[in-house]
Amino acid sequence: MSAVYVVVAAFENSVREFVEATLLEEAGANWWDDCVPSSIRKGAEKRRYEEQKVRWHTQRGESLIHFTMLPNLFAIIRNNFDKFEASVHDIDWATSIFETIDRSRNVIMHSGTLERKDIARLGSSVRDWTQQVST
Per residue in 44-99, pLDDT tens? Predict the structure, then answer.
């Protein structure tokens, strides 16, 4: 499952980069405050604050986007779909992609094992997303 874990982690980080780059371009430097729902901002701030208390351990990242969860990333896209529509095109399709990947993510990130069919579905979903949003 280590290879699957890497795929899921890479997907999640690529979505963070996609969200940040898109909103920076579309909304400007204040995109976090202007485009991210307050509940997501507060959750990310709380996770960063808790991690800052543990100075002996490496932090997730510097930007608050690194402290968001996968469903929150999709909520940001959904709430700002007008800014993502040119890349994502169809919100229902994107919902399906994220639900599929998140279901597999939850198994992998909690030490579970996916069956081959689930790994194949995960791979197809990541590949489809990447091909759709890549420039």
Answer: 999 999 999 999 999 888 899 999 999 999 999 999 999 999 999 999 999 999 99
Query: Quick one: which H or E segment has residue 114?
Result: none
Give the domain ranges of the chain.
2-29+69-133
Query: What's the pLDDT tens digit per position in 115-132?
Result: 999 999 999 999 999 999
Task: Give the integer Cα–Cα distance in Å for 74 and 1.
Answer: 24
Residue type, 77: I
Please tell me the pTM assigned to this model.
Answer: 0.92
How far are the Cα atoms of 4, 16, 42, 70, 82 from residue 9, in angstroms, in the given order? 9, 11, 23, 10, 26
Q: Which of 103, 80, 97 is nearest to 23 (CA)?
A: 80
CB 126 within 8 A of CB 132: no
